[in-house]
UniProtKB/TrEMBL annotation:
<dbReference type="GO" id="GO:0050136">
    <property type="term" value="F:NADH dehydrogenase (quinone) (non-electrogenic) activity"/>
</dbReference>
<feature type="transmembrane region" description="Helical">
    <location>
        <begin position="30"/>
        <end position="47"/>
    </location>
</feature>
<dbReference type="Pfam" id="PF00499">
    <property type="entry name" value="Oxidored_q3"/>
</dbReference>
<feature type="transmembrane region" description="Helical">
    <location>
        <begin position="6"/>
        <end position="23"/>
    </location>
</feature>
<keyword id="KW-0472">Membrane</keyword>
<keyword id="KW-0560">Oxidoreductase</keyword>
<feature type="transmembrane region" description="Helical">
    <location>
        <begin position="140"/>
        <end position="162"/>
    </location>
</feature>
<keyword id="KW-0520">NAD</keyword>
<feature type="transmembrane region" description="Helical">
    <location>
        <begin position="98"/>
        <end position="120"/>
    </location>
</feature>
<keyword id="KW-0812">Transmembrane</keyword>
<dbReference type="InterPro" id="IPR001457">
    <property type="entry name" value="NADH_UbQ/plastoQ_OxRdtase_su6"/>
</dbReference>
<feature type="transmembrane region" description="Helical">
    <location>
        <begin position="53"/>
        <end position="77"/>
    </location>
</feature>
<dbReference type="InterPro" id="IPR042106">
    <property type="entry name" value="Nuo/plastoQ_OxRdtase_6_NuoJ"/>
</dbReference>
<keyword id="KW-1003">Cell membrane</keyword>
<protein>
    <recommendedName>
        <fullName>NADH-quinone oxidoreductase subunit J</fullName>
        <ecNumber>7.1.1.-</ecNumber>
    </recommendedName>
</protein>
<keyword id="KW-0874">Quinone</keyword>
<keyword id="KW-1133">Transmembrane helix</keyword>
C-alpha cells in the first residue's frame, strides 16, 4: 500500500511542481502549489507521520497558501506582471538557491541511504507528536518563532501593498442624500429605494414588474437588461393581478365611505 501511494502521488507532486515553476499566471502557480502540498500530505500519512500530515494540511495548505491567494487578490497580480523582472539578478539568485537546495537533498538522501536507520520506535519511544513538540519548543524554538514572525510580516506586507491612497473626499451619508435630492430636483429621479420585483403581485420572479398601490406596473422595478432583451412578463400575463389589486382598493374605499 505504501509503494502504491508513492508511485501514484509522487509523480503527481512532480508534475504539479513543474506546473508551479513553468506557469505564467500567478493564480495557476498557487493552485499548482496547493496540489504539491496535498500530495506531500498524503505521502506523510503513508509514512506513519500523522503530525506532519496535519501540519501540511492545516498550516501550509490552509494558512500559508490562503495567504498567498489573499495577496494575489488584494494586489491584483496578472500574467503581464508575473513576467516582468522587478528585482535585478533574481534569476541568478533563484538558480543558486535551487543548486544549494539540491545539494542539501543529496546530502540528506545519502545519509539516509548509507547510514543504518534507527527506526521511529527507537528514535521516538514516547510517540511522534510528543517528540516533535519537544524538539520544536527546545532545540528549534528560535527557528519556530522566526517562522511565525515571517508569517506575520507577510500578512502586514499584504495589507501595505493593498493600501491605496484616497484621491478624493470620503463620501458620507449626507453626501449621498444631497446627491439623490439633487437628481430628484433636476431629473425627477425618485430619491428612495427602487421597488423590488413582485411587490403587490402574486409572483416573486425578477421578470414580473412590481405593482404600485393603484394597480399600475412600476417601470423601474425590473432590470434594464431584461427590458432590453424583452424578457419581462407581458401586461396581459399579470392583468389579473392588477384587477385583484384594483378590486381590493375599491373594497377598501367602499368600507371607509360606509
Amino acid at each position: 500500500m505504501m509503494a502504491f501511494t508513492f508511485w501514484v502521488f509522487g509523480p503527481l507532486s512532480v508534475l504539479a511542481a513543474f506546473g508551479l515553476v513553468l506557469g505564467k499566471k500567478a493564480v495557476h502557480c498557487a493552485l499548482m502549489l496547493a496540489g504539491v502540498m496535498m500530495c506531500l500530505a498524503i505521502l506523510y500519512a503513508s509514512q506513519d507521520a500523522p503530525f506532519l500530515f496535519a501540519v501540511q494540511i492545516v498550516v501550509y495548505t490552509g494558512a500559508v497558501l490562503m495567504l498567498f491567494l489573499f495577496v494575489l487578490m488584494l494586489v491584483g497580480v496578472d500574467s503581464s506582471d508575473s513576467l516582468v523582472e522587478t528585482i535585478r539578478g533574481q534569476r541568478w539568485l533563484a538558480i543558486t538557491g535551487a543548486v544549494l537546495f539540491g545539494i542539501l537533498l543529496l546530502v540528506g538522501i545519502s545519509q539516509i541511504t548509507l547510514l543504518v536507520p534507527t527506526g521511529l520506535d527507537a528514535a521516538q519511544p514516547n510517540g511522534n507528536v510528543p517528540a516533535l513538540a519537544q524538539l520544536l519548543f527546545s532545540k528549534y524554538v528560535f527557528a519556530f518563532e522566526v517562522t511565525s514572525a515571517l508569517l506575520i510580516t507577510a500578512a502586514v506586507g499584504a495589507m501595505v501593498l493593498a493600501h491605496r491612497e484616497r484621491l478624493g473626499k470620503k463620501v458620507t451619508q449626507k453626501d449621498y442624500i444631497e446627491q439623490r435630492m439633487k437628481e430628484y430636483a433636476e431629473d425627477g429621479k425618485h430619491p428612495g429605494q427602487a421597488t423590488p420585483p413582485g411587490v403587490f403581485a402574486r409572483h416573486n420572479a425578477v421578470d414580473t414588474p412590481a405593482l404600485l398601490p393603484d394597480g399600475s406596473p412600476a417601470p423601474g422595478s425590473v432590470s434594464r437588461v431584461l427590458v432590453a432583451r424583452g424578457n419581462i412578463r407581458a401586461p396581459e400575463q399579470y392583468s389579473k393581478d392588477i384587477n385583484v389589486v384594483e378590486r381590493n382598493i375599491a373594497g377598501d374605499e367602499g368600507g371607509e365611505s360606509a
